[in-house]
Amino acid sequence: MPPRRFRTTRGSMTILNGPPQLIISAVIFSLGMTTVALAAPPAPAELAARVDQHLAAKWHDANVHPAPLAEDSVYVRRIHLDLVGRIPTAGETRQFLDDHNEHKRVILADRLLMSAAHARHAATIWRRQWVPQSDLVQSLHSDEIESWLAAQVRAGTGFDQVVRELLVAVPKSNRDGAPTAFLAASEFKPENLAANSTRAFLGLNLDCAQCHDHPFARWTRDQFWETAAFFNRPATTETQPVGLAISIPGSSRTVTPRFLAGASPTWPTPLGDETGRNVLASWITSKQNPFFARNLANRVWAQLFGIGLVEPLDDLNHENPPSHPELLDELAQSLIEQDFNLNRLIQSLVMTNAYQRSSHCDLPTVAGLDATDDRLFVRFGVRGLTGEQLYDSLRTAAGMSAEREDLDPQNASRERSRFAERFRIERTSNAQRSILQSLSLMNGSMMSELADIGKSPTLRAIAETPFLDSQGRIEALFLATISRPATNEERELYVTYIDQGSSSEDSKSRLADIFWALLNSAEFSTNH
Questions:
Q1: Among residues 211, 362, 392, 509, which is most buried (max CB within 10 A)?
Q2: First-last CA distance in the chain
Q3: CB of 122 closer than 8 Å to CB of 153
Q4: 241-243 and 235-236: which strand pairing?
Q5: 380: which DSSP letter?
Q6: Is residue 527 helix, strand or coil?
Q7: DSSP state of 323
Q8: Strand pairing report for 14-15 and 266-267
Q9: What values do phi and psi take at 231, rounded to 5?
């Protein structure tokens, strides 16, 4: 994977006398921006209403009306895929559809957010965003990284603390090596760490600034290397460290650490090997750093809606404004007030009408504005499933645990990882399955097992339950796979196909054919 790039501004380094430990709250960061005023965080329903108000203002300007709210069968599938990474079981779907509690959507979302499955799914998402190299470099141990991240999510750890741990982890001294994966993925090189840190944690793309000043880019080459200097070890005399600096390759110049917003850091004494990383981590995760909160909010929005309020996700700058500036500010502020607890933000977003809207509606182009533009969020965007979502959903539909019980844990994890890599997608919003991927899924050994009545618990139960007629079996298949009842047309077509079987065994075989077709359908492999 190519290295990533970063930037900062010029300035001298001031070293003050003080205790050796870094106390974040005692360091004042002069960002040149308004200090964040902390207040009591809004209730989830209150924030959800504000989100809908921001979007409604845009719709008013575009003179368009949003899609209606999605049916319960669509919502239950969507919320399971987004929060726990798999479709609901037939039983979960039926229970939700039969529930007449007017607050059942909120109750379901809260229950899923508290589950271990959510922590595991969230860990996969953030491991991919923060350490994408772990998909390709086996030595980075993606399963260990995800286990550590899942533990942080389950514990309700603020993401400022999680990110800080990734940046300040000390190689070879942590009992749990997972936090050092971010450093290892950058090969512990200051230039790679500068680029990867700003991209992942601040949403800033500084790649071009590593080698030159671009005439149209906001960040300069000096700023890139001033950030890289934080990851360097301090120069030393015979007795003690004297300061941090780094030489700019291809030049005779040396620069000292400086924050992107222009302020010089305040340093404790004495300096240690990790002092630069500690100071930078404190600045990156500070509540006064507007990039950190906005980047997190933008990425969470993109996870749930398929597209960010700012695109690309790593290009937060004044020349690339958000589609809804006030909305992004509100989400970032709520994260700060909630001490960067992402579950609280997710809880609010899934309560919005915007998240609960249907993906189907016909919208015209009005007054020069394309009402079908995804960034208006007038309807829910159709998204492809990640490799992990597809794997877990296929096994769920077949009545099997996502965790293979017939294999030892290590081999089961490898099988899931191999499948996920084969069906890996960069962004769910523009996922396109290749012909080879489709053929691999349709004709592969996994699909043969899932659609085998002798091996699939779901298929066997539906085929052999004596009180189900052909119509009942079709309904059960649809609930198990695409989480909705069959339409009248679908029901008539498939019932006729089953009843044309020449024998009981032939009818069972035809039922397996329908199950196979549903698992390979576009509806199954998308989140809509």
A1: 392
A2: 31
A3: yes
A4: antiparallel
A5: P
A6: strand
A7: S
A8: parallel
A9: -95, 0
399, 451, 478 from 509: Cα distances, Å: 18, 10, 17
**What are the respective helix, strand and coil percentages of the chain, to the nearest 5?**
50, 5, 45
Environment class of residue 268 by beta-carbon count within 10 Å: exposed (0-12), middle (13-18) or buried (19+)?
Answer: buried
Extended beta strands in 338-406, E state: 365-366, 369-370, 383-384
Residue 246: in which H helix or E strand, if any? Answer: strand 246-247
User: Exposed, middle or buried, 141 (CB in 10 Å: 0-12/13-18/19+)?
Assistant: middle
User: What is the identity of the amino acid at 434?
Assistant: S
Extract the tokens encoding 454. Answer: 């002798």
Task: Give the span between the Cα atoms of 58 and 209, in whole angstroms.
Answer: 35
Length of the chain (residues): 528
